[in-house]
Amino acid sequence: MTHQPPGEPPARRVRPDVQRNLDALLTAAAEVFESEGVDAPVRRITAKAGVGAGTFYRHFPHRSDLITAVFRRDVDACAEAAPAFSQQYEPVEALTRWLQCFAAFVAAKRGLKTALHSGDPAYESLPEYFHQRFVPVLAKLLDAAAASGDIRSDLAPHDLLRAMNDIVAPDDDGYTQRMIALLVDGLRYRPAGANPLTAGEAHA
């Protein structure tokens, strides 16, 4: 499912073959960007997607069009994973799994950072798009976990997203996963005045 960007007119229905080519280009571009960077030759992307240059440029006249489309597509995929996690898992587990999904998104987007912070006006709307898609889904996950009594209820989604951006290590997934586990543990609810160290010692 493709999320319609805010403020844009409804998308026209696309023929199945055209949509397949578009999906193939976006998937190929994301993989090439991750391994070679956003300046990788177009021929690498078209060869991986199995389409011609004409098809590529019909969809993406400028490289910034492609980079923007890849970013939005991956933002949408990550945001849309949240409801499925909520249906399948208990609230804290759903939150943890979505944070892991978000961490993978952040790690994969390292190749786009240079472009997104280049000052090109084509990318000006992307930070707002990021927040519009991620803040509401994270807020729901946090609210559900807080309502279950498992985590504290005073954390703003913006703060957690910022913390996640800081702890993701693109080249060390093990470190990232350990930090997510530590972060979630720090969110867990404890009665006022409880000392986590004392509680741990009591079970030693």
Give an account of the 3D structure:
This protein is mostly helical and 204 residues long. It has 10 helices and no strands. The protein has helices at 16-36, 42-49, 53-59, 63-88, 91-108, 113-116, 126-147, 157-167, 173-187, 196-202. The longest helix is centred in the middle third of the chain and has 26 residues, at 63-88. It is elongated and about 60 Å long. The model is unreliable at 6-10 and 196-204 (pLDDT under 50).
List the helices and strands and how they pair.
Elements: H1 16-36, H2 42-49, H3 53-59, H4 63-88, H5 91-108, H6 113-116, H7 126-147, H8 157-167, H9 173-187, H10 196-202
Unreliably modeled segments: 6-10, 196-204
Series of H and E elements: HHHHHHHHHH
User: What structural class do you assign from the helix and strand content?
Assistant: mainly alpha
Radius of gyration from the alpha-carbon trace, in angstroms: 20 Å
Number of helices: 10
Q: How many strands, what sense, and barrel or not for the largest sheet? A: none
Average of the residue pLDDT scores: 85
State the end-to-end distance.
Answer: 49 Å
Number of strands: 0
Summarize the structure.
The protein is 68% helix and 0% strand.
